[in-house]
Specification:
The complex is a heterodimer of chains A (70) and B (276). Chain A is mainly alpha-helical. Chain A contains 4 helices and no strands. Chain A is elongated. Chain B is of the alpha/beta class and 276 residues long. Chain B is built from 9 helices and 10 strands. In chain B, β6, α7 and β7 form a beta-alpha-beta unit. Chain B is globular, with a radius of gyration of 24 Å. Chain B has 2 domains: 118 residues, Cobalt-precorrin-4 Transmethylase, domain 1; 114 residues, Methyltransferase, Cobalt-precorrin-4 Transmethylase, Domain 2. The longest helix of chain B is centred in the last third of the chain and has 27 residues. In chain B, α3 runs parallel beside α4. Classes of the chains: A mainly alpha (70), B alpha/beta (276).
């Protein structure tokens, strides 16, 4: 596997034990900093290394479609 | 207009890789056009690995502008592709039909215009909450409110059931143009809730895990601490019941009378059959 995201998908799907997780990370053909971020379970650093968005907005419900006033 | 266009709004679930259904994945892989709105940047990258051409709906959000305008533009963006005869997939975090205006509106619009449109359910934050907190909503009943809506309207809270409040990080925002409100707004929410709960009542600040490398947030607070607590866009508040279930003796008495009547009627029918 060559992708940190692909590994996260596998970890999410299979629910890896800590030992399986560490072994899986060691087998990845990825940048050393990405590997360390995965080992540290450091999502923020991993996101930065992979070029993900710094900020996401995601609320998709309005409490009242008739309010909307300042 | 080409009526061959269609829409599928699918849920990814909350955790990357863990919750997506086979049907949702198939829609993502096979659609002509994929739009995506998720709650974690690594999850967005995951969708982009599945579909490098996926279009994020993020650019439609803008601080200081009503979210209703953003939502309408998101719906319109999907409709434009449907009108062009394309198979469109809207990918949303959690369940696309739970606390989610955009998928519901897009599907309603598409259907009203004669297009095929449907929703594929996903594992929502609510589902994760029950699993992580060990709550069964059927045990005492469970009320769910969007926090601002609870403030804007006169509602009746039942303190003998669970209470779950969503979007508390922006509670009290009437402009729909902010993604967070401050302690003064939350203090009003606290005062509203204090009509039904003691200030010492426990409250759980919950956030579902979105990655297999993170844990859910499950911080226990007191109602009195809510105004200054760290409540974010993704934080949900869970209030355990504050009062025991109270039996409705009048209804139980009426049911008992009904039981006796039914029993007597059955007995009479049996007697008639025996005589015949």
């Amino acid at each position: 596997m060559t992708s940190a995201i692909g590994f996260l998908e596998q970890a999410g799907r299979n629910g890896l034990s800590p030992a399986q997780y560490a072994a899986g990370v060691s087998l990845l053909d990825i940048d050393a900093r990405q590997r360390q971020a995965l080992l540290n379970r450091d999502a923020a650093t991993l996101n930065e290394l992979l070029g993900g968005r710094r900020r996401l907005l995601f609320a998709i419900l309005a409490p009242d479609e008739d309010v909307g006033q300042g | 207009m080409n009526q061959s266009g269609s829409l599928a709004c699918v849920g990814l679930g909350m955790m990357l890789g863990a919750h997506v259904s086979p049907r949702s994945r198939t829609h993502i892989e096979r659609a002509d056009v994929v739009f995506v709105l998720v709650s974690d940047p690594l999850v967005e990258l995951w969708v982009q690995e599945m579909r490098p051409d996926a279009r994020s709906l993020q650019p439609y959000y803008q601080e200081g502008r009503s979210r209703l305008d953003s939502y309408n533009e998101m719906v319109e963006a999907m409709l434009v592709e449907i009108h062009a005869g394309r198979q469109v997939c809207g990918v949303f975090y959690g369940h696309p039909g739970v606390f989610a205006l955009v998928p519901h509106k897009a599907i309603a619009r598409a259907r009203a215009e004669g297009f095929t449109a449907h929703m594929e359910p996903g594992i929502s934050a609510e589902d994760c909450l029950y699993a992580d907190l060990g709550i069964d909503p059927g045990k005492f009943g469970c009320q769910h409110y969007e926090a601002s809506q609870l403030m804007f309207y006169e509602r009746r809270i039942d303190p003998s059931a669970y209470l779950v409040l969503w979007q508390v990080g922006m509670a009290g925002d009437r402009s729909l143009a902010r993604f967070s409100t401050g302690p003064a707004y939350r203090q009003l929410l606290v005062e509203l809730l204090a009509q039904d709960y003691p200030m010492s009542h426990p409250v759980i600040a919950y956030e579902a895990a979105t990655l297999p490398i993170t844990a859910p947030r499950m911080d226990e607070l007191r109602l009195s601490e809510l105004a200054t607590a760290d409540l974010r866009l993704q934080t949900t508040l869970v209030f355990p019941p504050a009062a025991p279930l109270k039996r409705n003796q009048r209804m139980l008495d009426r049911l008992a009378v009904l039981d006796r009547t039914e029993s007597n009627r059955a007995e009479s029918n049996k007697t008639i059959v025996d005589v015949q």
